[in-house]
Design goal:
Helix content is 43%, strand content 15%. It is α/β, with parallel strands linked by helices. The strands form five sheets. The protein has a seven-stranded mixed β-sheet with strand order 4-12-11-10-9-5-6. Strands 13-14-17-16 form a four-stranded antiparallel β-sheet. It has a two-stranded parallel ribbon with strand order 1-15. The longest helix has 38 residues.
């Protein structure tokens, strides 16, 4: 007789099978997610999973690291090529861990930092509740231009001059358009501040030449995730174009021993394979992702949705932002649940004016995973019609779900990668 624990283990295994799940049959549109290529998946599910390699290639605290030294060295080389930079650390286990390392390297407890507020789309690691608070930093937030969905350039420049922060952090979780980085980094450097750019959401678009180039626009360093628009396994990057070896040592030390011990070698190897695929397919993937997002934004507006930044063309990234009711009304919360009932996976999101993260008025919608499965601008119009049926026509989500499954059935393969 099968034991209860074996049955429970099997139930967990069954739940991880995407082919029969909401993700496998539905439309995954959370802007912070993506899917692995077959080769990356194989590398992640390897013997490296249980191994340690503290330190840097050739300078380890464990024996048995020769093969992994070759893997990590190749990954560092590829990251420098892809991001056109002098320094790369690929050990971080996430974008937030990368941010923690950057803050450790470049600030001291009690320093002042400027960033985008969470209500305006800033990431929680940029807030007192996250890495900024863990580091013990004083936070000031940029004045925000709601129509342009970016920091108000003149008001933010004045704030930087008045507040004189030790670090100016740019980048968002709701990231529709390039940051006015050249203008604001010039002001930051004028007051002696370091400039940090969190490219977690848009890292693949940056690497694919479709967004902005932060390391050429004044950022002293850039952090990012390896599993959003950069379509690899869970993990992070720490990047800089500085040629100062002392600065490189500070960044490396901030990762290890700063915020990482063992750093998930199987994921690092997965990043390296993802980078080889990105060199081959990344520009096309980034270009198609942005085209799909823009088409989706226009289609959603045509269906009658209130889409942010209409005057700017809705987006220049992989995501759009939609409003579904009054601030703090919970309209976004309800919309996300209705869509999930129809097989469409999204996330509620705060909009400017919202103050409660669990009852916001908006949705943040990403197309990077649908693009990775081969959907194009025509499919974006179909997806917008499905949204309208659920949220505008008020159809029963259960009656929409079969059409969601029918659309997704033709897009099961992973594109923009090597075949097995």
């Amino acid at each position: 007789m099968t034991s209860e624990n074996r049955r429970l283990a099997q139930s967990v295994l069954d739940a991880t099978d995407a082919s029969g799940s909401l993700y496998g049959n539905g439309l995954p549109m959370i802007a912070s997610e993506n899917v692995l290529s077959p080769l990356v998946r194989r590398v992640v599910d390897s013997d490296l999973h249980g191994r340690y390699a503290e330190g840097l290639p050739g300078k380890r605290y464990y024996q048995g690291c020769e093969d992994f030294d070759d893997i990590e060295s190749l990954g560092i080389q590829l990251a420098k090529q892809i991001f056109n930079c002098e320094f790369a650390n690929i050990q971080s286990t996430s974008g937030t861990v990368s941010n923690m390392a950057a803050l450790k390297a470049l600030t001291q407890p009690g320093d002042k930092i400027s960033a985008v507020s969470t209500a305006d789309g800033g990431h929680i690691s940029h807030a007192r509740m996250g890495a900024v608070g863990v580091r013990g930093l004083e936070l000031v937030t940029y004045p925000w231009d709601v129509e342009r969905m970016e920091p108000d350039i003149d008001a933010a420049a004045k704030m930087i001059r008045d507040e004189k922060p030790q670090m100016c952090l740019f980048g968002q979780s709701v990231f529709l358009f390039p940051t006015p980085l050249e203008e604001l980094s010039e002001v930051a450097h004028e007051v002696g501040a370091k400039v940090m750019y969190d490219g977690a959401h848009v890292l693949g678009l940056i690497a694919g030449g479709q967004f902005q180039d932060p390391l050429r626009e004044g950022a002293d360093m850039m952090t990012g995730s390896s599993h959003k628009t950069f379509p690899g396994p869970q993990g992070g990057f720490l990047l800089s174009d500085s040629d100062d070896p002392k600065f490189h040592r500070r960044l490396n030390s901030a990762i290890f021993p700063g915020v990482c011990s063992s750093y998930h070698l199987h994921h690092v190897a997965g990043k390296v394979v993802a980078m080889t695929e990105f060199q081959e397919f990344g520009e096309a993937y980034a270009r198609d992702t942005v085209a799909n997002a823009q088409a989706f934004g226009a289609a959603m507006a045509a269906e009658g949705f209130e889409v942010s930044a209409e005057r700017r063309g809705y987006t220049a990234s992989h995501q759009i932002l939609t409003c579904h009711g009054e601030p703090d009304s919970g309209a976004g919360t309800r919309a996300a649940q209705q869509l999930e009932d129809a097989g469409i996976i999204t996330n509620m999101n705060m909009l400017p004016g919202d103050t409660k993260a669990m009852t916001p008025s908006g949705l943040r919608l990403g197309v990077q995973e649908l693009t990775r499965h081969g959907m194009g601008t025509g499919e974006m119009e179909e997806v917008a019609r499905l949204f309208a049926r659920v949220l505008i026509a008020d159809e029963d989500p259960a009656s929409v779900k079969p059409d969601v499954h029918s659309l997704r059935a033709d897009f099961q393969e992973v594109s923009y990668c090597f075949s097995e």
